[in-house]
Specification:
22 strands; about 30% strand; single chain; disordered C terminus; OB fold (Dihydrolipoamide Acetyltransferase, E2P); alpha+beta; 5-stranded mixed β-barrel; 5 domains; 9 helices; 5-stranded antiparallel β-sheet
């Protein structure tokens, strides 16, 4: 078997000789003499113009005739060469007209320079085979990625057509963990040759390595063009508990769950799904570590930008409890904004854990007691809502009662109201002591009076209500 490089050189030499042979008769067909007459060249000139071909030569020729006997090809020799039907293609029984047409320029392999009948026997199939091996060996030496069609699925991998039969192991298809290999049949895949053995007609290729080569090329190109702040279109390739990986042009960037939305989300799947096409912002690029950080919320409207217009201190809002933490409960309000109800604002009594009062998913109505948009924080209170409801109920109750006598609630309530208007705050112990002192003073003043048992009980109940109201207010 000839070395492909020698064959290539031989092909070129023979082809040039053929072209010279074709041109020589034309140039020497007639010779001019001094008196203007022409004479026919001698027969030996034609013989010298054609270089004899030898078995194994690969030359170019032109298809001049097609019939059942085969295909006649003009290769620049004294007679046309014949390609038998079986030497046209390795596909088998295929009509010659489906492979070549008259006038086509094709490469042919010299099987026999002169058979028993003196004919030049050629092979297109063999020429294609030799050219295929030359291309395979060249690609293997240079590491070039080639493309081939998948023709079959066999045990252990795929069969591809390279002009010769090639094999791709299942571990080298895609990521190496592809289960349904049948879906690749009929597809053209980029491949990298990893092993050849011409004597055994063996070619082993890798699709995975070819993809990695292409990805590396794309990665280098992409990192050169990337800069922070760019908006890129990408495809979600994978979703994890901590974010999603987005392909932005051959390289995957990480879209962290914290960068998906201005509001809290429990899982990235609430925002994106695999194969979604999305626009993302490039937040950070690190070529050395091959890392790209992406953001989605940066190109979405920020609901906190309108908080001061929609919420005010003292507003009553309704929301749903989204999560409970040791120091309170988070409540989701309109537009996905979350407010916090501290444990101290969950009830009038002491609350150690928010689970004592609320559960995830509860619908609550609370009062806005603090608003800090710059810190993205809204503080809510259930306790103050309860206090206001009790006061409202008490006022309604008082409207229906006769007002011809003074009660402990009147005395204590007036004093507490004056203090609350001045904005003073005391701790619970001081507040309780003040209330007790006022009650004792009131009792001293009323000592000479002998209230009925019903009046005493009623006054005690009113004082208790007022005391609870004052503790709540403070």
């Amino acid at each position: 078997m000839l070395d492909d490089r020698d064959e290539g050189q031989k092909t070129t030499t023979v082809t040039e000789a053929s072209e010279t042979a074709q041109a020589a008769p034309a140039a020497g067909a007639q010779r001019s003499v001094g008196n203007g007459e022409t004479t026919e060249p001698p027969a030996e000139d034609f013989t010298r113009a054609f270089r004899p071909l030898t078995e194994g030569d690969i030359i170019k020729g032109t298809v001049v005739h097609i019939d059942r006997e085969g295909v006649l090809v003009d290769v620049g020799t004294k007679s046309d060469g014949l390609i038998p039907p079986v030497e046209l293609s390795r596909e088998g029984a295929v009509a010659a007209e489906d492979i070549v047409s008259i006038g086509d320029q094709i490469d042919v392999y010299v099987l026999d320079a002169e058979d028993q009948e003196g004919n030049l026997i050629l092979s297109k199939k063999r020429a294609d085979y030799e050219k295929a091996w030359h291309r395979i060996e060249e690609s293997f030496e240079t590491g070039k990625v080639i493309t081939a069609m998948v023709t079959d699925r066999v045990k252990g991998g795929l069969v591809v057509d390279l002009g010769v039969r090639g094999f791709v192991p299942a571990s080298h298809v895609g990521s190496g963990k592809v289960r349904n290999l049948e879906r690749y049949i009929g597809q053209s895949l980029p491949l990298k040759i990893i092993e050849i053995d011409r004597d055994r007609k063996r070619v082993v290729l890798s699709h995975r390595m070819a993809v990695e080569v292409e990805r590396e090329r794309q990665r280098e190109t992409l990192f050169k063009s990337l800069s922070e702040g760019q908006i890129r279109e990408g495809i979600v390739r994978r979703v994890t508990d901590y974010g999603a990986f987005v392909d932005i042009g051959g390289v995957d960037g990480l879209l962290h769950v914290s960068e998906m939305s201005w509001t809290r989300i429990n899982h990235p799947s609430e925002v994106v799904r695999v194969n979604d096409k999305i626009h993302v912002v490039v937040l950070k690029v690190n070529p050395d570590e091959n890392k790209i950080s992406l953001g989605l919320r940066q190109i979405l409207p920020d609901p906190w930008g309108e908080v001061e217009e929609k919420f005010h201190v003292g507003d009553v809002v309704t929301g749903r409890v989204t999560r409970l933490v040791p120091f309170g409960a988070f409540v989701q309000l309109a537009n996905g904004i979350e407010g916090i109800i501290p444990n101290a604002e969950l009830a009038q009594r002491r609350v150690n854990k928010p689970e004592e009062v609320l559960s995830n998913g509860d619908e609550v109505t609370a009062k806005v007691i603090n608003l800090r948009p710059d810190e993205r924080r809204i503080t809510l209170s259930l306790r103050q809502m309860q206090v206001e409801e009790e006061r409202r109920d008490f006022r309604e109750f008082q409207r229906g009662r006769p007002s011809d006598r003074t009660t402990i609630g009147d005395v204590v309530g007036e004093a507490l109201a004056a203090r609350m208007r001045r904005g003073g705050r005391r701790d619970r112990r001081d507040r309780d002591r003040d209330i007790e002192e006022q009650i004792e003073a009131y009792q001293e003043e009323m000592k000479d009076l002998e209230p009925t048992e019903e009046a005493t009980e009623e006054a005690t109940e009113e004082a208790t209500e007022e005391e609870r109201d004052s503790e709540t207010k403070a």
